[in-house]
Write a structure and sequence with these properties.
Low-confidence stretches: none
CATH architecture of the largest domain: Alpha-Beta Complex
Number of strands: 11
Number of domains: 2
CATH class of the largest domain: Alpha Beta
Strand content: over 45%
CATH topology of the largest domain: Nucleoside Triphosphate Pyrophosphohydrolase
Order of helices and strands: EEEEEEEHEEEEHH
Oligomer: single chain
CATH superfamily of the largest domain: Nucleoside Triphosphate Pyrophosphohydrolase
Distance between the termini: 37 Å
């Protein structure tokens, strides 16, 4: 290991996030400070529909305070629990944000979110066989809207700045790699 932790102290905590400051020593002996945000696991869901008229994904659109902007993204989130059933969490987040229920959920891959500064796993799921139900949004999601778009439009949105969420872009890349490898039906 090229960086050794000398000491660690929590400097902030709320129900969603913990921030710690670690005193570290690099392999060359130089010491420094590393700030780390710890968050419990999360899921990101690609709700995909295949119909006679094409392929569609469902996105949510919401205001993101940290960047002071409103953007489209795949449904995603966590339950603020370290030991959670990943598929159950993914199904819950999909239902909560979009009202969608999925016949089939396929775990495509786990990813780290922004691991240069944050420790949080994001589990990428493909949701298929969708039926519409009622949303159950958290209070901070009051401004969220739901959008069903053609896959081709979603890919344009990735390139024109309407989708700027790196987790949504990464999830789509994982899905395309999974599809290309012929993982469907295995």
């Amino acid at each position: 290991m090229s960086i050794r932790t000398i000491s660690s102290r929590e400097v902030y905590r709320n129900p969603w996030t913990r921030v710690r400051e670690d005193v570290i020593e690099r392999s060359n002996g130089a010491r420094g400070i590393y700030g780390v945000m710890d968050k419990d696991p999360a899921a990101i869901i690609i709700p995909l529909e295949r119909t006679g008229s094409g392929e569609f994904v469902t996105l949510v659109r919401q205001f993101r305070y940290t960047v002071q902007g409103t953007f489209y993204e795949f449904p995603q989130g966590g339950w603020e629990e370290a030991d959670v059933d990943k598929e159950e969490m993914a199904r819950g987040e999909l239902r909560e944000e979009t009202g969608l229920l999925a016949e089939q959920m396929t775990l495509l891959a786990p990813l780290w979110i922004a691991y240069g500064a944050m420790r949080q796993e994001h589990h990428v799921f493909l949701a298929e066989g969708l039926t519409q139900g009622e949303t159950e949004r958290d209070p901070e999601e009051h401004d969220m809207t739901i959008h069903r778009v053609r896959v081709e439009e979603f890919e344009r949105m990735l390139l024109d700045g309407r989708v700027m969420d790196n987790c949504s872009a990464a999830a789509w890349g994982v899905y395309l790699a999974w599809l290309r490898r012929g993982e469907r039906g295995r």
